[in-house]
Design a protein that fits this description.
Two copies of one chain form a homodimer.
Chain A lengths: L9 H4 L4 E5 L8 H11 L5 E4 L8 E2 L2 E2 L13 E5 L5 H11 L3 E4 L9 H17 L2 E3 L5 E4 L4 E2 L12 E8 L11 H4 L3 E6 L8 H10 L5 E6 L5 H12 L4 E5 L4 H11 L6 H11 L2 E3 L2 H13 L7 E6 L2 H13 L3 E2 L4 H10 L8 E2 L1 H10 L6 H12 L5 E8 L7 H12 L6 E7 L2 H13 L4 E2 L2 H23 L7
Parallel strand pairs in A: 1-2, 1-5, 5-6, 6-7, 10-11, 10-12, 12-13, 13-14, 15-16, 15-17, 15-18, 18-19, 19-20
Antiparallel strand pairs in A: 3-4, 8-9, 8-11
Chain lengths: 486, 486
């Protein structure tokens, strides 16, 4: 019997050669489509099509169809299997015989579907224990690796290119990945994506172990419904969070949600206070909504960590400042008290300035009535002063975008970049305005300069709150001498 | 001295003739620009430009410039004043002499700016008490009336047409209105917009009194930092909520937020539990974020009220169902238990169906592997069954939108409309998918059929939670015999 952690998960994400086992009909949902997706995403290694009736197909994407992985000459590291549940154990057995290290069982109809499926899933676990092969799934869309074009999901994928970067997305649901999420519209780069499905073998702890060592991954966003093995999870999470931030959405945190989770995964989600404590002790940063899970990493990946939780905000109206202050408090941030030097500098711009939140509205209307030059000059003047204050750890700036400003957006983006240059503090933007297309265009231009922008103020501030929380966690881990885990 | 509520606020929203007092330079931020905005929004009544130096201008938009409202022949109902603070009291006095009922003081530099401004603001209040004239502001952008094109804000307004409809937006900050918010992208119709500013006279209670009687207004969204007079507010709010829903964002609900509010409005925001109780007793439905305040009304305006809080959701994955269940619990909804008839009908579609949340993912992949007809047929089959269940009060449907589906969107929208036809229960949609433009396009097409759609699951469900909360409030008010307030 295989020992846990004997092998790492490299074969799931970085296989040299892949087998795709299942129907080769040229429609989404098949092994054919798995091959097609991988070719479109640019996976360059051999992909062997496997089907019990090879003569019906001949070649698929230039590769000969074989009736079994055992008929393939040359090594295979990973098999992606999408066949009826009853056929899967034999196929996985053959994979083990072939020396394949990793199998992704993409098919549905296992423990999540009832008694019969649960029995077959148990057979897969027996094979894992007997042979040491590793299985991801069943009931999964598998993995994506933006670095090598590996993409095992069988559905139609709207996005066949991915921005490569440092964020790993991992979930216990199929609704992530380029077939489900507007990854390119999120405007940050992806390292790995992984749907752990029914977790008959590979689970969240294994993934965190792998991602902790993955040099491409700088930030991990994790959706979980249950944790299979608390101590293993905590060990893996602490090892990871000593190196990089881990953002977690624990779904099923309400009682009704936990019941809904039990009915679709067959696993009991457990009581939330226990998860809360485990996640806190693991160094994970917890978010509350699906939207936050995917939007918070943008600030973590593009910006440095803050030294503390002292927050400043520059807004266009006093009302926005109050709302931002509420959001900051709820995100665990506290309002920075500006240094005398900052107060002095700000009040030289206008006697109305000097406190935090910085409401530049009145200054803007003064300057507008005097001249009609750059309407953002108040922002340009205040941003560097606020950023350089030693009492300020992180800042959200407000930007207005309307259709009439679209021609000016590149100049605004230049101004932001200049203002933030040379300061190693996390900064992000809340964009509001009169036109959604103009707001989205400004966000795109900011993201192109690695400056995180949000159309929702609360999420922008929550992201800085998560950055501050992780910064504190990391400092504590260092103090506790957690380095031995590295 | 004038008695409170002696006059209503009609003159602010439905004036026959308007005076615009201030600079007539052709730039944003002036009285000229106020006139320009009103003409662009289609206000058809006379607008008299007033400036101490009439010979410098001659005519503005075809109207002769006068040096004072007293020089205008013919009646004026409303004056919009944007002149330096020190000049305002005399101008308002002249307005009172002229018999003008309502003045909007658009200028800044009053109580929010310091001692000096506070003194001048006090002078305005004295004029109110002495003459009975009503003043909105100062430090406001005033009002918009989508029905008559009245629009008193002096800044550049990107959107010069408004979708006319039933939602009134009212705030204690200038960051609402067509010069600040993507109203047309929100895709619901507006009745009135009002920024109550420094509230030297007209306050939230007055506005609620007016909106309670306004036949154009069906839903009120209110942003507040403080309540000037608790009992008057509660009386007005209860009178309004007996007729139409009132959604409130109480900004400054954290201690730090309350301090920030005090520093920019000069008024103390007060302790949140007191507001919580007052708002609850007033029948208001409370939201927590800026985004919710503007997005929740979409469901209230387009959909009927639910009879109870029993919620159902149809999703494309089990994971989405768990997240939706958490969100429903937090929004005060409970998961509906389907009737035996519904369970029977659903299980005839697939043995995997029958419980709530309804996860149609497995059914969709089954049908996709059988034929490649309408991928939404599982949704088309399940929607009417769930909607017609007597144990279900409200429903969120999930829709997937990707670029490849854009040509199919009109058919999907038809299907949704057909499914919901003849059922008087509130329904909305969460749209997710692989392409933000495709998701936004589906939302637009749904909104054109008055079907509320959200790109954020939590906000969609929160909106149904608010509808259920208001439904309960309304039923309680009826039981308590609150009808005498009508």
């Amino acid at each position: 019997m295989r020992r846990r952690n004997e092998t790492d998960l490299k074969a799931f994400f970085e296989p040299r050669a892949v087998a795709a086992v299942g129907s080769l009909r040229e429609v989404p949902g098949t092994a054919y489509w798995v091959i097609r997706n991988m070719r479109h995403f640019g996976f360059a290694g051999p992909i062997h099509p496997i089907n019990p009736n090879p003569s019906a197909y001949g070649e698929v994407f230039g590769a000969s169809v074989r009736s079994s992985v055992l008929d393939v000459t040359g090594p295979i590291d990973l098999a992606a299997v999408i066949t009826p549940p009853a056929t899967v154990p034999k196929i996985v057995d053959q994979c083990a015989q072939k020396g394949i290290k990793a199998v992704i069982v993409l098919s549905e109809g296992f423990a999540e579907a009832g008694e019969e499926g649960a029995k077959i899933q148990k057979m897969l676990q027996d094979i894992v224990h007997r042979t040491g092969i590793r299985i991801m799934g069943p009931n999964t869309f598998g993995v994506v690796n933006a670095a090598n074009g590996l993409a095992t999901m069988p559905p139609y994928a709207d996005q066949e290119t991915l921005q490569r970067g440092g964020v790993a997305l991992c979930s216990q649901t199929g609704s992530i990945g380029p077939h489900q999420m507007p990854l390119n519209d999120w405007n940050y780069g992806i390292s790995k994506i992984c749907d752990i499905g029914n977790k008959c073998d590979v689970d969240e702890a294994d993934i965190l172990d792998y991602l902790a060592d993955d040099p491409e991954t700088k930030v991990v966003a994790l959706h979980l419904e249950d944790i299979r093995d608390g101590p293993r999870f905590m060990h893996a999470a602490r090892r990871l969070t000593a190196r990089k931030p881990l953002v977690v959405l624990k779904a099923g945190h309400t009682e009704a949600g936990a019941r809904a989770s039990a009915s679709h995964t067959g696993s009991l989600a457990g009581r939330d206070p226990i998860y809360e404590a485990a996640l806190r002790q693991s160094g994970a940063v917890r978010v509350r909504t699906w939207q936050e899970l995917w939007e918070v990493p943008k600030t973590l990946i593009y910006q440095p960590l803050p030294e503390g939780n002292r927050f400043a905000v520059i807004t266009f109206t006093g009302g926005q400042g109050v709302i931002a202050t509420d959001a900051a408090t709820e995100a665990g941030l506290e309002l920075a008290v500006f240094s005398p030097d900052t107060v002095h500098k700000l009040s030289r711009i206008s006697p109305r300035l000097g406190s935090n939140p910085v409401d530049i509205g009145p200054v803007m209307s003064d300057s507008r009535s005097q001249s009609s030059t750059n309407p953002f000059s108040a922002l340009e003047q205040t941003m560097p002063i606020v950023l350089q204050d030693e009492n300020v750890d992180c800042v959200t700036f407000t930007f207005y975008a309307g259709l009439q400003l679209v021609p000016m957006l590149p100049a605004i983006v230049d101004m932001i970049e200049t203002s933030a240059r040379g300061v190693s503090k996390p900064v992000n933007a809340w964009i509001y305005g009169t036109s959604l297309p103009a707001m989205e265009e400004l966000a795109r231009q900011l993201h192109a300069r690695k400056f995180p922008a949000y159309l929702d103020l609360d999420t922008a501030i929550k992201a800085l709150g998560c950055a501050a929380a992780y910064s504190r966690i990391k400092a504590n881990l260092s103090r506790q001498g957690m380095e031995e885990c590295r």
